[in-house]
Amino acid sequence: MKNPWTSVSFVTLICTQSGNGMPLRFRPNLQLQIPDSAPAEQFQVYSEDSRVRHLQYELRDNKAVHVHVDEADAESLRKVHLTTNRDGRKISFIVLADSGVPNFQHGHKMEGFHKDIGEKLGSFAGKVDFVVLAGDNFYDHGVKDCADPQWKEVWFDRLRVAKLKVPFFSVLGNHDVEGAPGLQNVFQNCEGVDEEMAHYWVSPSTNYHVAVNGEINLVFINTNEVGTDPVTRKKGMNIIASQAIKDIKPDFVVGHHPMYAAGPTNKKRVNYIKSDGTLHGESIAAAHLRNLPFSTYICGHVHGMQFHRGVNHKQILVGGGGGTLATGLGSNPQHGSSSNFEDVEAVVNDIAHGFAVITIDLTTHKSEVEYHRYIGHRKWVISLSVDI
C-alpha cells in the first residue's frame, strides 16, 4: 500500500482555527506527513480534545463497562481507565483492522463480507468488553468531515455498534491520515453529532494508553508518525509513545503497520530505511517496536490474518477487515511460510477476510487469540486458536 507523502517538519506551530477559534498546537520535534494526493488545505484541521470524559456501557445481567478518559498532558500519553465486571476474571475483546469499505464513496454496495461481518460481530454482544480497530478504519481517504456518511454506514450501522454496546478504541491507518487531520480523535465533539455514536467512539489521541481493570495495559500508537530524538537526531517513533512503552511495558501495543510480514514485498524491512524515515512506503515506527519491551503487537495493513512468534515479541495481524485481500500469503490457516525474519515463526498465515477475539484470564495469566474466518454466504469458521 504505497503512500506518496510529502514530509513537513515543524518546531512549534500555533494558529487559529476558523469557526470556533480554538488554538491548534503541534508538539515540537514531530514530522507531519501530508499525502501529495490529498492537500491538507482541503480539510478542516481538528484540535485535540483535552477534556476529561466519563462513559458507562450497560451490558446484560447487571454487568457494565466503565471508561474514564484523563485530561490531556503534553508530557505523557493520554490515559484511559476501563473497568469491567462482565465475566469475573476474564477479559475479551474483538480486534479488527482495515475495516473500511473500499470505493464506498463511489457507490460500492454492502454485500458479501462487508454485509455479513456486522451480523457476526453482533453475535458477540455480551461476550466482549471492548473493540480494537487497528487502522484503515475508513477507505479510501479516511473521513473528510463530521458529516461523512461513513461514520454511520461503514462503522456504526455495519459493525453493529449499538448491539455490541461496548467502547471502540482505534488507531490511524495510512488511509485514515489522508482524511481530515485530527478528526478521528475528536469525533465526539463534532457539532450536531449523534450522541449515541459519539458515546461508543473512544479514541482520545493519536497515541494513548488504556488500562483495563488496572491489570492489563494496551498502548495505542500512530505508526504513520515519525519522531526525531532531539539528542541523537535519530529517526524513530514518537518520543513520548516510545518512552511510555519502556515505562509501562504493556501487554499489548496496537498500531496499523506490522513489525513482521510474510508477504514477498516485505523482505527484511529493517534493512530498507529511506532518508525520509519510511521503509519502502511502510512505517519506521513499527520497525522500531522490535527494540521496545512489550509482549504482543496488534496490527493490520496486510490484508489477511497472521500470527508471528518471535524471540521477544508476538504479532497478531488482523488486516482482513474489509480491504482487497493480499497476495503472497498462504491459503491455509496453518500455512506457516517464512516470515522473512530468521528469528520469527509464522504460525498463522492466511489469505482471508475476518477478525480475531483475544481472551485473557487474569487469574492464570493465560491468553489466546481466536481467528474467525469468513468463508462466504454468511458462513464463518474458527480457523485457529493460538496461545499468546
TrEMBL record:
This is Calcineurin-like phosphoesterase domain-containing protein. SUPFAM superfamilies: Metallo-dependent phosphatases (SSF56300). GO terms for molecular function: hydrolase activity. InterPro entries: Calcineurin-like_PHP (IPR004843), Metallo-depent_PP-like (IPR029052), Metallophosphoesterase_PAP (IPR051558). Keywords: Hydrolase, Signal. Residues 93-304 form the Calcineurin-like phosphoesterase domain. It comes from Albugo candida.
